[in-house]
UniProtKB/TrEMBL annotation:
Domain DRBM, residue spans: 161-224
Stated name of the protein: DRBM domain-containing protein
Pfam families documented for this protein: dsrm
Amino acid sequence: MYPTLADVDCYTHTDYEVGKRLFNMYNVLQILASSPKDRTDDSISKADELVRSMNYDFAAAVTALKDQGLDLPRTDLVGDETYEAILYKFMGYLRLSETSKDQFILLMNRLPRVQIPDSKQDTQPLPAVDGYLGIQDKAPAAVGSVASGSISETDPDNWKYTSLLWEKGQMHNTTPVCTETCLSNFPTRFRVTIQFKGVQGSGDARNKRLAKHIAARAVCQALGFRPS
């Protein structure tokens, strides 16, 4: 699992343990999000068991991540280290680094998903996007982030995404969760945050309506929704 004592590892045991917990939590969330109708009091324990029983291809995951240009101290195995162990170290190292959190989101977006049995899956898997696993307002738009900084407050098409998002909610028998915050009274500035299908997006604007449109657009873009 770890490099031999003769080898000096540039990763720490903390990197490994944090990465292992992140991996398990991420996949449990994938499973729970895939079948919201079947959630019960013991859903988490059942999801834990399912993750443990899956034959996840750690070697393929590590190979795929090697080509993403991640800022990692090493990507090759050392000593008797396993692919499972080094994947956990990738995740822990990038999540804990103060300068690599953007790359952690890139890793999560490129990480191969667990294969959820068809009988368990009735919605799209939970995307790995900005705001996920404790990261906020860091991911570049190129990796499907829900950061809204690139969305113009004056874009005349913003309202279409709010309408589209609520239509999607009706299709899935759910309603996007919307919260409002007053950032400033002078000049007036509001923030609206919308949560839908495991994705959270925020929008800042001079009034609540515009902020809501920006947040809705961020969520739609992360989920791949486009107005016709």
